[in-house]
Amino acid sequence: MNRILIENLSAIIVDLPTIRPHKLAMHTMQNQTLVILRLRCSDGIEGIGEATTIGGLAYGYESPESIKANIDAHLAPALLGMDADNLNVAMQKLDKIAKGNTFAKSAIESALLDAKGKRFGLPVSELLGGRVRDSLEVAWTLASGDTARDIAEAEQMLEARRHRIFKLKIGANPLEQDLKHVVAIKKALGERASVRVDVNQYWDESQAIRGFQVLGDNGIDLIEQPISRVNRSGQIRLNQRSPAPIMADESIESVEDAFSLAADGAASVFALKIAKNGGPRAVLRTAQIAEAAGIALYGGTMLEGSVGTLASAHAFLTLRQLTWDTELFGPLLLTEDIVTERPQYRDFHLHIPRTPGLGLTLDEERLARFRRH
Ligand code: MUC
Ligand code: MG
């Protein structure tokens, strides 16, 4: 059999409008910027991937601009002429020439999987060993910054059977104000919804102790990343005393982080994000560490568009158990997309067809319209 080679990689920055401002503790999103990767192979097949973060450099160590610059200058040249079907060799080479850069590596690993799936007529989930489900339940983030508006948004989502799990972004306001906001939303939704919070590292340990008491007493199901990712001993202490499970998000910047968190007993749930681990295969290594340690799983997002969302979904479809479901709603935050057919959300779930690769086609006209020049 002829070897198929990697011929070209191109990273494209795309700025897309969003349905409303999305308020996180560290940044309010007024739009979303995606990095779309096109990887062309010698048989003419193109794989696509995505590396998307939140708020420039406000969330993580990579920005859309740094992701593109590092792909253009370092990662793409290293891959040219390599076997397009051998992901082990390709990704090991990237790990050798580039420390970190998990977002860029995730886009590349996704694009290699997409191309290989298209070539062999297999969905990415099947390249990853095979799916054990065809759909994933998806949470929605209430982050308008206004309690009444958030409640109205949640009611609409319940009525439309789109979401019944809600994550509230807190941490930006004074503690008592945030707690009042959360309790009011949980009271309004009652048993009809699971309500969770994401503090995005904004509390110190004393605020977390106070916050946990109120959240635990008021039926909040899950508390995500309450304190700084670097305060490991604080995370261990909080995990031992919290009345609700604690989920690690920012604390996991790599598969190795996942291992050391598990070894330290610093969280009982892991948010799985392909971008923070280096791709759909890499995130499954973190999932395996969690499974071995008895840590529950949640399918996380960096608010990617359709490409990154489907790349994540194909990996999550293969997991034995996703106790806390997923938050793969990124495409629903966008008013415009750059794929011809948008992902299908209905009955509280994202449904993933068994089409080859990721199952997506880029819309060239829209890509040309929204790409940054
Ligand atoms: C995060 O920190 O989890 C995921 C959903 C959302 O609204 O923000 C992201 C980032
Ligand atoms: Mg989070």
UniProtKB/TrEMBL annotation:
Protein name: Muconate cycloisomerase
UniProt key word Metal-binding: yes
Transmembrane segments: none
Keyword annotations of the record: Aromatic hydrocarbons catabolism, Isomerase, Manganese, Metal-binding
SUPFAM superfamilies the UniProt entry points to: Enolase C-terminal domain-like (SSF51604), Enolase N-terminal domain-like (SSF54826)
InterPro entries: Chloromuconate_cycloisomerase, Enolase-like_C_sf, Enolase-like_N, Enolase_C-like, Mandel_Rmase/mucon_lact_enz_CS, Mandelate_racemase_C, Mandelate_racemase_N_dom
Entry annotated with the keyword Manganese: yes
Entry cofactors: Mn(2+)
One Pfam family of this chain: MR_MLE_N
Family: Belongs to the mandelate racemase/muconate lactonizing enzyme family.
Superkingdom of the source species: Bacteria
Domain Mandelate racemase/muconate lactonizing enzyme C-terminal: 148-245
Listed pathway(s): Aromatic compound metabolism
